[in-house]
Sequence to fold (201 residues):
Amino acid sequence: MEYDGKLYEITSGYSLPDDAWHHELSGLSGEPGTGPYLTFAVPDATPDGPFTPKSAEHVVVHAGGGVVPWPVLEALIGRLESSGDLVDEARDLSPDAIALPVTLNTWAYEGRRFEVNHYHDGCSWCYELYEVDTDTTANNFIDVRIPDASPDTGPFVPMSSRHVTLTMHGRWTIPWPVFRRFLDAIRATGDIVAPVRPMTA
Fold:
């Protein structure tokens, strides 16, 4: 697919090394290795038989670096959702689950701890997700940036989702429920604004 002058490829296929069905996004423009690379991996419950997706709690997100425009990210998520591979997804959209306080918000999942931070950097509102108490020294995290339509005059006015980006720093494997909750929490703030379609005569 083409978006904003850049080419992206979304593919789906079975990965024998990890016995999982992969829904993958790759950037085709720019220098080799610049990405973006983003994969949703759905483990196979019956690797010796026909593909049977494990429940959604076992799905993982491989964030391999690069910048993904929000509409392209939604296209990849749409591919996963329409595939039927998200089985028994326990998606909690209650305010207690997705509300973001002003200060750091800590989430726990399967013995891992994650923090969500959000702030205005002068020209965008930024939402960050990263893991704490890990054994690695790598600076792995993701952030969603929403440009401010009036950075000099305030208050914050989000530009449309056409301008929103997901940036993946480093190489990180994230549980799907945590990734999904992160995106749901951002949507719940009201900062993801649909583009206004031009009027036609």
Notes: The first helix runs from residue 70 to 83. The mean pLDDT is 93. The CA atoms of residues 160 and 193 lie 5 Å apart.
